[in-house]
Write a structure and sequence with these properties.
Enzyme class: hydrolase
Shape: globular
CATH architecture: 2-Layer Sandwich
GO molecular function, one term: tRNA binding
Radius of gyration: 17 Å
Subunit structure: Consists of a catalytic RNA component (M1 or rnpB) and a protein subunit.
Number of strands: 6
EC number: 3.1.26.5
GO cellular component, one term: ribonuclease P complex
């Protein structure tokens, strides 16, 4: 199952902005860069969990922008696409499971390092949780 479209970081411009301006945290197999999105110029996302009232008193369902994730994995990690795709699938599964815990309004790029080839799902889960908590993308509890 894929990551929902509103949670995907797709354009190279967005990747570049997160790399230039984002906060960085690193572990053995992963490096994460995270940038808090600004609400200026962004359209609100309609959602049933938060409401806002406009000037006429009409209630509208609004929330902060969704957090977006991108995964960057180089051929230096592995020449075999099968290995790179397996790592990306595992990371997307972890992100999808954690979406409820992730604070809204973040743009996150996960950079996979060469040592990730030897890691299994539990290692990725532990490292990604640690890095996202360190960057305050998810709560520390």
């Amino acid at each position: 199952m894929a990551l929902p479209k509103q949670n995907r970081l797709r354009s190279s411009r967005d990747f570049g902005k997160v790399h230039r301006k984002g906060k960085r945290a690193s572990a053995l197999a992963l490096s994460v860069r995270a940038l808090k999105q600004t609400s200026v110029g962004q359209k609100p996302v309609l959602r049933a969990d938060r409401s806002s009232i406009d000037e006429q008193g009409v209630g509208e369902q609004l929330s902060a922008p969704s957090s977006c994730f991108g995964i960057s994995i180089s051929k230096k990690v592995s020449k075999r696409a099968v290995v790179r795709n397996r790592i990306k699938r595992q990371l997307r599964a972890i992100i999808r499971d954690r979406l409820a815990d992730i604070h809204p309004g973040w743009q996150v790029v996960i950079v996979v390092r060469a040592s990730a080839v030897e890691c299994d799902f539990a290692d990725f889960l532990r490292e990604l949780d640690y890095l996202l908590k360190r960057l305050s993308v998810i709560s520390k509890s």
